[in-house]
Amino acid sequence: MYIIKNAFISISRNKGRNILIGIIIMVIAASCAITLAIRSSADKIVTSYEKKYPIEVTIGMNRANLTQSFKDNNSSQEDMIEAFNELEPLTIEEIEKYGDSSYIAKYHYTYSVSLNGKDIKEATDSLVKETTTTKTETETKTETYETPAPSRDGNMPPFDRENSGSTSTKKSTTQRKTTTTQVENIRNERAAKGVFTVIGYNSYEAMSDFINGNYTITDGEVSDDFDANNCVISEELATLNELKVGDIITLVSPDDEKITYDLNITGIYQENTDSASDMRNMFSNSANTIITNVTTVKDIVSKDEDANPTVTPTYILKNKDDVGAFEVEVTSKGLSNYYMLNNNLEVVENATKSVLSVKNFATTFLIITLIIGAVVLLVINMINIRERKYEIGVLRTIGMKKSLVGTQFTLELLIVCLTFLVLGAFIGGFTSVQVSNKLLNNEISNAKEDIENISNNFGGKMRDFNRNEIGVQELETIDSIDAAVDMKVLAQLLGIGIGLTLVGSAASMIAISRFSPLDILKERS
Amino acid sequence: MKKEIVLKIDHVSYRYKDAPKDVYVFKNMSYTFETGKVYVIKGKSGSGKTTLLSLISGLEKGYEGKIYFRDRDLSRIKLDKYRNSDIGIVFQSYNLLVHLTASENILLSMNINGMKEKNKKERVIELLESVGLTKDHANRRVLKLSGGEQQRVAIARSLSYNPGIILADEPTGNLDRETENDILKIFKDLAHKDNKCVIIVTHSDNVAKQADEVIELTSQKKKD
Prior knowledge:
The structure holds two protein chains of two kinds. Chain A is of the alpha+beta class.
């Protein structure tokens, strides 16, 4: 206890020396606070981005493997098509099996089928115009030969002098050879047979086109009843068929016209993608896409066994480092090597690259600051110890243990360090708030804009859907941060302060252990 | 007062580490010190008197022979503890901590000793008064005190934990004759009234005259 009291007395009686050490520590602390705060803000921005745009894994065709397989077997195009038809499509059960993984935070899928319309026209810029022309022709294939009468001058025509003046008839028969060609239609059985693509979603979060802004509702809304026979259709389809919200459209199976499905239109959407720049087509890519829910598509598939539905899963990973592990797991669960996993890891990493480079720069700056700080502190403390050599000698002479002398000196440095560390943290915090909050504010305003846009994309009435599912809750947390130096940064600064103290004290501990009190006092005398 | 042997030097020889093997500061020295007496170790410069005091105080090691404190071999005891409880040391240059007041210097010594006494501050004042200082001196930084006053503080500090032996190395070397006599009186009182063993190293004849026993050291720097 007296060590602490003695340390405080020593600090208060040697203000000049301690203020000098303190200023150095304060500068180090302020620099560290700024860099730590920038690092912390960068981490938050990256985390926020990764929450907002999590790592998504989808399953697609592995065309490279497929082609290689055809190449290895010297397959003809006919063989290739047949082999492709025999390839087992993904089923909902498989999607669920792969989704039951510790690496997966959640998953969703779309279920789509192709249908024709009844009394509705598809949006297309090519029509087959049929013109029926009825033509009646009577053809008498009779060859009549007539002998002409002699002319006044008595000359006969030169061609038939023998039958001149008489008439004869001749009938002829022509033999035709007919070849019959049998045409076998070898086609991809998975290819769309109907003119409309009906896509079923199982949740809002699965509707990435609306979340990303590719589609925007212009009238009505996307229904939140994912079991009802509701749908949204494109503006082009609505215009072409004079359809509006509340109307019912009837779709029919391309294989059996008796199988029909009625869907209630709850909204009309517009496509905002690059298809507008494709000037070869009159309509957008999504013009014939009808958006409904998975339940409805399942209902359609249950009625029509030839429907050939397509399941497209999207898995949201818990951690971006699990991409490889999840791929291994899915392969071990039996995914054919003709399918492959695709992910958006590169896109996400590219998007956060600039922020991470700021973080790396801050880290480098922090390390340099710490090294310089530690060296400066060590040198100053060594000079300090030389100045206090006499004090060490006296304390040792009157019986104070080396360890206690060292503890007192370390304690003094720690008290000075922590005091000026707090001051440095305040200064650094004040400075870094400007920088970090600017970084954060950009992110927050982007996030808010995103939320508004997403809500508008769904028809502007989706105020109550689970916002956390698209990372909105995390962004709101960031919104509440108004100071860059938070508890984490302070804890890091405290660690740095203690680290610097120990480095600085190392000099005093070594010196104290090496000094002989008698030599010191002799030197003094 | 009952006198007892507190310190025994038994065939002690000492040579500096960097000195040739056979050159000693002193060789085969034996002496016994009792309580209630003032001893003066006298000799010319280089005779080894300060070295002897350093060996007795445990500040110097590497000697041959044995030194016993109350029958305990000095080489086998913890010297830090020995210095902060069994002996008190007074130096010519006082060796006080200059950033502390007179009373703080004494209190620190008490704390290092681990004294549990409740009224330490009162005890400090008593000690200062016993060496002729007042309360006013107690709260002054030592640099604000005169040489004689500083030496009195140093003596008070050496007495703070009531040691059996007081070792003083040229305690009056920096002081005038009058102050020297005052300081010597304190030492004599400590020996004769408080039954302490006072060992003073000096080259002053005036100091030597007032001792109960004088140990004359002659230069031993010759080959044995």
